[in-house]
Design brief:
Helix content: 25-40%
Oligomer: single chain
Strand order of the largest sheet: 6-5-4-3-2-1-7-8
Strand content: 5-15%
Shape: globular
Order of helices and strands: EHEHEHEHHEHEHHEEHHHHHH
Radius of gyration: 21 Å
Largest sheet: 8 strands, mixed
Distance between the termini: 63 Å
Amino acid sequence: MRKTKLNIPNMTDKKELSQSVYFTTNLICNLDCVYCYEHDKSDRSTFKIEEAKRTLFKTLNNVTKKGTLVNFHGGEPFISFDKIRELCEWAWAQNFPERFTMFATSNGTLIHGEIKEWLYENRHRFIVGLSLDGTREMHNINRSNSFDKIDLDFFVKTWPKQSVKMTVSPHTIENLAEGIISIHRYGFHDIRANLAEMVDWSSPRYKEIYARELAKLSKFYLENRNLQKCSLFSVNFSSIANNVVRKWCGVGTEMTAIDIDGRSYPCHLFFDSVCGKDKSQAIIKIDFYNPKAYTSKKCTNCQFLPVCPTCYGANYISRGDIAERDWNMCELHQIRFLEVARFEAQKIISESSIISNLKPEERYKRLQILKGIQMILPELNTNES
Protein backbone atom coordinates (compact mmCIF):
# COMPACT_ATOMS: atom_id res chain seq x y z
CA MET A 1 0.00 0.00 0.00
CA ARG A 2 1.31 3.45 -0.90
CA LYS A 3 2.06 5.59 2.15
CA THR A 4 -0.05 8.68 2.63
CA LYS A 5 2.83 10.72 3.96
CA LEU A 6 3.36 14.36 3.07
CA ASN A 7 7.00 15.25 3.47
CA ILE A 8 7.06 18.89 4.41
CA PRO A 9 9.26 20.21 7.22
CA ASN A 10 6.70 22.24 9.10
CA MET A 11 2.96 21.79 8.91
CA THR A 12 2.35 25.19 10.46
CA ASP A 13 3.49 26.82 7.23
CA LYS A 14 0.26 26.43 5.25
CA LYS A 15 1.89 28.06 2.20
CA GLU A 16 3.64 24.71 1.66
CA LEU A 17 0.26 23.12 0.87
CA SER A 18 -2.30 23.31 -1.89
CA GLN A 19 -5.24 23.28 0.50
CA SER A 20 -6.34 22.82 4.09
CA VAL A 21 -9.49 21.19 5.42
CA TYR A 22 -10.39 22.04 9.01
CA PHE A 23 -12.64 19.77 11.05
CA THR A 24 -14.04 21.20 14.27
CA THR A 25 -13.86 18.29 16.67
CA ASN A 26 -15.80 19.88 19.54
CA LEU A 27 -16.59 23.21 21.17
CA ILE A 28 -15.27 22.43 24.62
CA CYS A 29 -11.85 22.86 26.19
CA ASN A 30 -10.27 21.90 29.47
CA LEU A 31 -8.59 25.33 29.71
CA ASP A 32 -9.85 28.91 29.78
CA CYS A 33 -7.15 30.99 28.08
CA VAL A 34 -7.21 34.75 28.61
CA TYR A 35 -7.37 35.53 24.87
CA CYS A 36 -9.78 32.77 23.79
CA TYR A 37 -12.21 33.83 21.06
CA GLU A 38 -14.49 30.78 21.36
CA HIS A 39 -17.60 32.12 23.09
CA ASP A 40 -19.72 28.99 22.72
CA LYS A 41 -18.01 26.31 24.82
CA SER A 42 -21.04 24.08 25.19
CA ASP A 43 -20.69 20.31 25.33
CA ARG A 44 -23.62 19.84 22.95
CA SER A 45 -21.85 17.59 20.48
CA THR A 46 -18.69 16.57 18.69
CA PHE A 47 -18.06 16.28 14.98
CA LYS A 48 -19.92 13.67 12.95
CA ILE A 49 -17.70 10.85 11.69
CA GLU A 50 -19.77 9.84 8.67
CA GLU A 51 -20.00 13.42 7.39
CA ALA A 52 -16.25 13.85 7.88
CA LYS A 53 -15.61 10.64 5.92
CA ARG A 54 -17.75 11.88 3.03
CA THR A 55 -15.83 15.17 2.99
CA LEU A 56 -12.45 13.44 3.02
CA PHE A 57 -13.53 10.92 0.39
CA LYS A 58 -14.44 13.75 -1.96
CA THR A 59 -11.39 15.88 -1.11
CA LEU A 60 -8.67 13.22 -1.14
CA ASN A 61 -9.79 11.59 -4.36
CA ASN A 62 -8.74 14.78 -6.17
CA VAL A 63 -4.99 15.22 -6.58
CA THR A 64 -3.46 18.65 -5.94
CA LYS A 65 0.04 19.86 -6.69
CA LYS A 66 1.33 20.09 -3.10
CA GLY A 67 -1.04 17.99 -1.04
CA THR A 68 -3.72 18.50 1.59
CA LEU A 69 -3.56 19.28 5.29
CA VAL A 70 -6.39 17.74 7.32
CA ASN A 71 -6.56 19.89 10.44
CA PHE A 72 -8.43 19.00 13.62
CA HIS A 73 -9.53 22.07 15.53
CA GLY A 74 -11.31 22.54 18.86
CA GLY A 75 -11.92 23.43 21.64
CA GLU A 76 -9.19 21.05 22.60
CA PRO A 77 -9.17 18.44 19.81
CA PHE A 78 -7.96 15.54 21.93
CA ILE A 79 -11.08 15.66 24.07
CA SER A 80 -12.49 13.90 20.97
CA PHE A 81 -9.54 11.53 20.59
CA ASP A 82 -11.60 8.39 19.88
CA LYS A 83 -13.32 10.02 16.91
CA ILE A 84 -10.06 11.52 15.61
CA ARG A 85 -8.43 8.11 15.74
CA GLU A 86 -11.36 6.43 13.99
CA LEU A 87 -11.38 8.96 11.15
CA CYS A 88 -7.60 8.88 10.70
CA GLU A 89 -7.33 5.11 10.61
CA TRP A 90 -10.18 4.94 8.11
CA ALA A 91 -8.51 7.54 5.88
CA TRP A 92 -5.10 5.85 6.03
CA ALA A 93 -6.69 2.56 4.94
CA GLN A 94 -8.33 4.08 1.82
CA ASN A 95 -5.18 4.51 -0.28
CA PHE A 96 -6.37 7.88 -1.58
CA PRO A 97 -4.46 9.30 -4.57
CA GLU A 98 -3.97 12.66 -2.85
CA ARG A 99 -1.02 13.15 -0.50
CA PHE A 100 -2.18 14.28 2.93
CA THR A 101 -1.13 14.67 6.52
CA MET A 102 -3.23 14.97 9.65
CA PHE A 103 -2.56 17.89 11.97
CA ALA A 104 -3.93 19.29 15.22
CA THR A 105 -3.07 22.28 17.37
CA SER A 106 -3.25 21.26 21.02
CA ASN A 107 -2.70 22.63 24.50
CA GLY A 108 -0.81 19.39 25.17
CA THR A 109 -2.37 18.67 28.55
CA LEU A 110 -4.23 15.51 27.44
CA ILE A 111 -1.36 13.97 25.48
CA HIS A 112 -0.39 11.22 27.85
CA GLY A 113 -0.88 7.45 28.07
CA GLU A 114 -2.88 5.94 25.18
CA ILE A 115 -3.05 9.21 23.22
CA LYS A 116 0.70 9.71 23.46
CA GLU A 117 1.42 6.14 22.38
CA TRP A 118 -0.89 6.40 19.33
CA LEU A 119 0.57 9.74 18.27
CA TYR A 120 4.14 8.49 18.56
CA GLU A 121 3.32 5.41 16.51
CA ASN A 122 1.80 7.63 13.79
CA ARG A 123 4.19 10.58 14.11
CA HIS A 124 5.09 10.43 10.39
CA ARG A 125 1.49 11.08 9.35
CA PHE A 126 -0.14 12.90 12.29
CA ILE A 127 1.57 16.03 13.56
CA VAL A 128 0.66 18.07 16.62
CA GLY A 129 1.49 21.75 17.00
CA LEU A 130 1.82 22.72 20.64
CA SER A 131 0.59 26.00 22.06
CA LEU A 132 3.25 27.19 24.49
CA ASP A 133 3.27 30.77 25.74
CA GLY A 134 6.81 31.22 27.02
CA THR A 135 8.13 30.68 30.52
CA ARG A 136 6.23 28.61 33.05
CA GLU A 137 4.91 31.79 34.66
CA MET A 138 3.84 33.37 31.35
CA HIS A 139 2.15 30.20 30.15
CA ASN A 140 0.29 29.77 33.42
CA ILE A 141 -0.96 33.37 33.30
CA ASN A 142 -2.31 32.95 29.77
CA ARG A 143 -3.35 29.31 29.82
CA SER A 144 -5.00 28.29 33.09
CA ASN A 145 -1.95 27.10 35.06
CA SER A 146 -1.40 24.25 32.63
CA PHE A 147 2.39 24.31 32.09
CA ASP A 148 3.18 21.35 34.35
CA LYS A 149 0.56 19.20 32.59
CA ILE A 150 2.53 19.21 29.31
CA ASP A 151 5.26 16.70 28.44
CA LEU A 152 7.55 19.12 26.59
CA ASP A 153 10.20 16.48 25.90
CA PHE A 154 7.65 14.36 24.05
CA PHE A 155 6.92 17.16 21.58
CA VAL A 156 10.61 17.96 21.05
CA LYS A 157 11.44 14.28 20.44
CA THR A 158 8.39 13.33 18.38
CA TRP A 159 8.16 16.30 15.98
CA PRO A 160 11.56 18.04 16.16
CA LYS A 161 10.88 20.21 13.09
CA GLN A 162 7.38 21.26 14.04
CA SER A 163 6.86 24.78 15.33
CA VAL A 164 5.31 25.77 18.62
CA LYS A 165 2.72 28.53 18.79
CA MET A 166 3.36 31.28 21.32
CA THR A 167 0.62 33.85 21.83
CA VAL A 168 1.59 37.11 23.51
CA SER A 169 -1.13 38.74 25.57
CA PRO A 170 -1.18 42.14 27.32
CA HIS A 171 -0.57 40.13 30.51
CA THR A 172 2.70 38.61 29.26
CA ILE A 173 4.22 41.12 26.81
CA GLU A 174 6.38 42.46 29.66
CA ASN A 175 8.43 39.24 29.48
CA LEU A 176 8.27 38.59 25.74
CA ALA A 177 12.03 38.19 25.18
CA GLU A 178 12.47 35.91 28.16
CA GLY A 179 9.58 33.79 26.91
CA ILE A 180 11.05 33.32 23.43
CA ILE A 181 14.50 32.55 24.82
CA SER A 182 13.07 30.01 27.26
CA ILE A 183 11.28 28.13 24.46
CA HIS A 184 14.57 27.89 22.56
CA ARG A 185 16.11 26.43 25.72
CA TYR A 186 13.33 23.85 26.03
CA GLY A 187 14.66 22.48 22.73
CA PHE A 188 12.21 23.89 20.17
CA HIS A 189 13.71 25.38 17.03
CA ASP A 190 10.76 26.99 15.27
CA ILE A 191 8.76 29.47 17.36
CA ARG A 192 5.68 31.07 15.80
CA ALA A 193 4.93 34.03 18.04
CA ASN A 194 2.12 36.53 17.59
CA LEU A 195 0.25 39.21 19.47
CA ALA A 196 -3.15 38.03 20.65
CA GLU A 197 -6.02 39.07 18.39
CA MET A 198 -9.24 40.72 19.59
CA VAL A 199 -7.74 42.06 22.82
CA ASP A 200 -7.08 45.66 23.87
CA TRP A 201 -3.66 46.89 22.71
CA SER A 202 -4.51 50.59 22.97
CA SER A 203 -2.33 51.51 25.96
CA PRO A 204 0.77 53.54 24.92
CA ARG A 205 2.87 51.55 27.39
CA TYR A 206 2.63 48.47 25.19
CA LYS A 207 4.60 50.27 22.47
CA GLU A 208 7.43 51.03 24.88
CA ILE A 209 7.45 47.48 26.25
CA TYR A 210 7.32 45.89 22.78
CA ALA A 211 10.24 48.00 21.52
CA ARG A 212 12.28 47.13 24.59
CA GLU A 213 11.58 43.39 24.38
CA LEU A 214 12.29 43.20 20.65
CA ALA A 215 15.61 44.98 21.20
CA LYS A 216 16.50 42.30 23.76
CA LEU A 217 15.62 39.60 21.25
CA SER A 218 17.66 41.30 18.54
CA LYS A 219 20.73 41.26 20.78
CA PHE A 220 20.07 37.60 21.65
CA TYR A 221 19.84 36.52 18.00
CA LEU A 222 22.92 38.48 16.99
CA GLU A 223 24.80 36.65 19.73
CA ASN A 224 23.26 33.27 18.79
CA ARG A 225 23.26 33.22 15.00
CA ASN A 226 23.01 29.46 14.85
CA LEU A 227 19.46 29.60 16.17
CA GLN A 228 16.41 29.84 13.94
CA LYS A 229 14.83 33.22 14.58
CA CYS A 230 11.28 33.30 15.90
CA SER A 231 8.56 34.44 13.50
CA LEU A 232 8.56 37.96 14.95
CA PHE A 233 11.92 38.39 13.19
CA SER A 234 10.66 36.97 9.91
CA VAL A 235 9.88 40.02 7.79
CA ASN A 236 10.21 39.69 4.03
CA PHE A 237 11.65 43.13 3.26
CA SER A 238 12.37 42.11 -0.33
CA SER A 239 8.59 42.02 -0.95
CA ILE A 240 8.55 45.74 -0.09
CA ALA A 241 11.31 46.37 -2.60
CA ASN A 242 9.32 44.48 -5.24
CA ASN A 243 5.92 45.82 -4.07
CA VAL A 244 4.49 42.31 -3.74
CA VAL A 245 1.18 42.22 -1.86
CA ARG A 246 -0.57 38.92 -1.24
CA LYS A 247 -3.48 37.75 0.85
CA TRP A 248 -2.11 36.91 4.27
CA CYS A 249 -3.58 33.40 4.52
CA GLY A 250 -5.65 30.89 2.58
CA VAL A 251 -9.01 31.90 4.07
CA GLY A 252 -11.79 31.35 1.57
CA THR A 253 -9.46 30.22 -1.22
CA GLU A 254 -7.17 27.37 -0.09
CA MET A 255 -8.91 26.76 3.23
CA THR A 256 -12.21 25.11 4.11
CA ALA A 257 -13.38 24.89 7.72
CA ILE A 258 -16.16 22.51 8.72
CA ASP A 259 -18.09 22.97 11.96
CA ILE A 260 -19.49 20.21 14.16
CA ASP A 261 -22.74 20.28 12.19
CA GLY A 262 -20.94 19.67 8.89
CA ARG A 263 -21.34 23.19 7.49
CA SER A 264 -18.48 24.68 5.46
CA TYR A 265 -16.92 28.10 6.07
CA PRO A 266 -13.93 30.07 4.75
CA CYS A 267 -12.23 29.81 8.18
CA HIS A 268 -13.10 28.54 11.65
CA LEU A 269 -13.36 32.13 12.88
CA PHE A 270 -16.51 32.50 10.77
CA PHE A 271 -18.39 29.77 12.64
CA ASP A 272 -21.57 31.01 14.29
CA SER A 273 -20.16 29.66 17.57
CA VAL A 274 -17.37 32.25 17.22
CA CYS A 275 -18.75 35.33 15.46
CA GLY A 276 -22.48 34.89 15.99
CA LYS A 277 -25.19 33.60 13.68
CA ASP A 278 -25.89 36.85 11.82
CA LYS A 279 -22.27 37.55 10.94
CA SER A 280 -21.68 33.90 10.15
CA GLN A 281 -24.49 33.83 7.60
CA ALA A 282 -23.36 37.10 6.00
CA ILE A 283 -19.96 35.77 4.91
CA ILE A 284 -21.47 34.35 1.73
CA LYS A 285 -21.37 37.91 0.39
CA ILE A 286 -17.57 38.12 0.66
CA ASP A 287 -15.44 37.38 -2.41
CA PHE A 288 -12.14 36.19 -0.97
CA TYR A 289 -10.58 36.09 -4.45
CA ASN A 290 -11.03 39.85 -4.84
CA PRO A 291 -8.06 41.84 -3.42
CA LYS A 292 -10.35 44.80 -2.80
CA ALA A 293 -12.38 42.71 -0.34
CA TYR A 294 -9.45 42.14 2.02
CA THR A 295 -7.48 45.38 1.56
CA SER A 296 -8.66 48.45 3.43
CA LYS A 297 -8.57 51.78 1.58
CA LYS A 298 -6.51 53.05 4.52
CA CYS A 299 -3.84 50.47 3.68
CA THR A 300 -3.71 50.82 -0.10
CA ASN A 301 -0.76 53.21 -0.22
CA CYS A 302 1.00 51.95 2.91
CA GLN A 303 4.58 50.83 2.28
CA PHE A 304 4.26 48.25 5.02
CA LEU A 305 1.30 46.44 3.45
CA PRO A 306 3.41 43.64 1.86
CA VAL A 307 4.75 42.63 5.30
CA CYS A 308 1.96 43.68 7.67
CA PRO A 309 0.13 40.66 9.12
CA THR A 310 -3.58 40.60 9.73
CA CYS A 311 -6.31 38.14 10.68
CA TYR A 312 -9.33 38.51 8.40
CA GLY A 313 -11.54 36.61 10.82
CA ALA A 314 -10.58 38.85 13.75
CA ASN A 315 -11.19 41.92 11.59
CA TYR A 316 -14.63 40.62 10.69
CA ILE A 317 -15.60 39.75 14.26
CA SER A 318 -14.34 43.02 15.78
CA ARG A 319 -15.14 45.53 13.01
CA GLY A 320 -17.56 43.78 10.66
CA ASP A 321 -15.18 43.90 7.68
CA ILE A 322 -12.36 41.47 6.84
CA ALA A 323 -10.25 44.39 5.56
CA GLU A 324 -10.49 46.71 8.57
CA ARG A 325 -7.52 46.14 10.84
CA ASP A 326 -6.86 46.90 14.48
CA TRP A 327 -4.85 50.11 14.14
CA ASN A 328 -3.34 49.67 17.60
CA MET A 329 -1.78 46.45 16.33
CA CYS A 330 -0.59 48.22 13.18
CA GLU A 331 1.41 50.60 15.35
CA LEU A 332 2.93 47.66 17.20
CA HIS A 333 3.79 45.98 13.90
CA GLN A 334 5.65 49.11 12.78
CA ILE A 335 7.72 48.99 15.96
CA ARG A 336 8.60 45.39 15.06
CA PHE A 337 9.48 46.30 11.47
CA LEU A 338 11.91 48.96 12.71
CA GLU A 339 13.70 46.59 15.09
CA VAL A 340 13.87 43.77 12.56
CA ALA A 341 15.12 46.20 9.89
CA ARG A 342 17.90 47.27 12.22
CA PHE A 343 18.68 43.64 12.99
CA GLU A 344 18.80 42.56 9.35
CA ALA A 345 20.88 45.55 8.28
CA GLN A 346 23.35 44.98 11.11
CA LYS A 347 23.55 41.28 10.28
CA ILE A 348 24.16 41.87 6.57
CA ILE A 349 26.74 44.60 7.20
CA SER A 350 28.60 42.40 9.70
CA GLU A 351 28.76 39.66 7.07
CA SER A 352 29.82 42.00 4.25
CA SER A 353 33.20 40.32 3.98
CA ILE A 354 31.60 37.11 2.73
CA ILE A 355 29.06 38.67 0.32
CA SER A 356 31.49 38.56 -2.61
CA ASN A 357 31.77 34.78 -2.12
CA LEU A 358 28.03 34.17 -2.21
CA LYS A 359 26.16 32.72 -5.16
CA PRO A 360 24.60 35.42 -7.37
CA GLU A 361 21.04 34.55 -6.29
CA GLU A 362 21.92 34.76 -2.60
CA ARG A 363 23.77 38.04 -3.12
CA TYR A 364 20.75 39.43 -5.00
CA LYS A 365 18.45 38.31 -2.19
CA ARG A 366 20.47 40.24 0.40
CA LEU A 367 20.56 43.33 -1.76
CA GLN A 368 16.77 43.20 -2.15
CA ILE A 369 16.39 42.96 1.62
CA LEU A 370 18.57 46.05 2.06
CA LYS A 371 16.62 47.87 -0.65
CA GLY A 372 13.34 47.16 1.14
CA ILE A 373 14.79 48.32 4.43
CA GLN A 374 16.06 51.54 2.87
CA MET A 375 12.60 52.23 1.45
CA ILE A 376 10.79 52.05 4.78
CA LEU A 377 13.37 53.27 7.31
CA PRO A 378 12.63 56.99 6.84
CA GLU A 379 8.95 56.48 7.59
CA LEU A 380 9.65 54.09 10.46
CA ASN A 381 12.06 56.53 12.07
CA THR A 382 9.53 59.36 11.64
CA ASN A 383 6.83 57.30 13.32
CA GLU A 384 9.21 56.35 16.11
CA SER A 385 9.99 59.96 16.91
